[in-house]
Amino acid sequence: MLSYQHIYHAGNPADVHKHALLCWMLAYMTRKDKPLSYLETHAGRGLYHLDTPEALRTGEAAAGVGRMLEAGVVADDHPYPAALGRVRAEHGAQVYAGSPMLAAMILRTQDRMDLAELHPQEYEALRLAMSPYGARVHKRDGFDMAQSLCPPTPRRGLMLIDPSYEVKAEYGAIPGQIAKLHRKWNVGVICLWYPILTSNAHAPMLSALEAQGLPGALRHEVRFAPVREGHRMIGSGLFAVNAPFGLADAAAQLSARWP
Ligand code: SAM
């Protein structure tokens, strides 16, 4: 039974890190006319209302996007605030955009989007939010969808893997899943988000990922204070295979501006 719901965390500092890098990569990859595939294994609901009791209860968005964009965590011409601004213009100033919605703001009509979400309510909300943007929304396990669609058509593209890590076995399974996906889709940009936890639960997974020696591997991490007392997440990480040219510089700029 899945209990994680991203509405409690949408717009937190980890989202800012993940979404800023995602928007940068997609903006870079869409500079060429050639179509691309965007796949997400753990999509969430796509659109989050920050004025709901769930979002207000944790205050995570206020500590994240609310404060960080104003403080200039990315430059004014970075694609992340532009994409978020377009979502807010369409859906209201109180929304926060999930990764599929941000991607939809950057992708073009020739691009293809496949999103997996397993939680029944999150899936239904995702389908309603993303179908108008031409996304194909799958109610199934994200890795099952990814393995069955790879290599996707078009072959150029990016996959975001953003699990909730509710099931601790996920940490152990992910390196093997990514290796298999890379074997099937050797040109794909495969990005994994992971939490940096006080318990260091993510560390063996990262060692295993790095030991695989996948091409163009890039790891980028930022740290932050726990969003509330006792919260175990103290940072956010992104591990990319076939990282696009320039991502290391874009990530370094984010680090330099990180509060
Ligand atoms: N990527 C989203 C974003 O940045 O806006 C947030 C996704 S949230 C961290 C993880 C999502 O994965 C949750 O909505 C959860 O219901 C979903 N999920 C959990 N296990 C899954 C699985 N095996 N397959 C697909 N989705 C799953």
UniProtKB/TrEMBL annotation:
Keyword rRNA processing: yes
Enzyme Commission (EC) number: 2.1.1.266
Pfam families: RsmJ
MF terms (GO), sorted A to Z: 23S rRNA (adenine(2030)-N(6))-methyltransferase activity; RNA binding
GO biological process: rRNA base methylation
Site (Interaction with substrate rRNA): Y4
Enzyme class, spelled out: transferase
SUPFAM superfamilies: S-adenosyl-L-methionine-dependent methyltransferases
One Gene Ontology cellular component annotation held by this UniProt entry: cytosol
Catalytic activity: adenosine(2030) in 23S rRNA + S-adenosyl-L-methionine = N(6)-methyladenosine(2030) in 23S rRNA + S-adenosyl-L-homocysteine + H(+)
Keywords, in A-Z order: Methyltransferase, RNA-binding, rRNA processing, S-adenosyl-L-methionine, Transferase
Keyword hit for Signal: no
Classification via InterPro entries: RlmJ, SAM-dependent_MTases_sf
Enzyme active site: D162
Subunit structure as annotated in this protein's UniProt entry: Monomer.
Family: Belongs to the RlmJ family.
Entry-linked HAMAP family: 23SrRNA_methyltr_J (MF_00934)
Name by which UniProt lists this protein: Ribosomal RNA large subunit methyltransferase J
Organism listed in the record: Sediminimonas qiaohouensis
Phylogenetic classification of the source organism: Bacteria, Pseudomonadati, Pseudomonadota, Alphaproteobacteria, Rhodobacterales
Gene designation: rlmJ
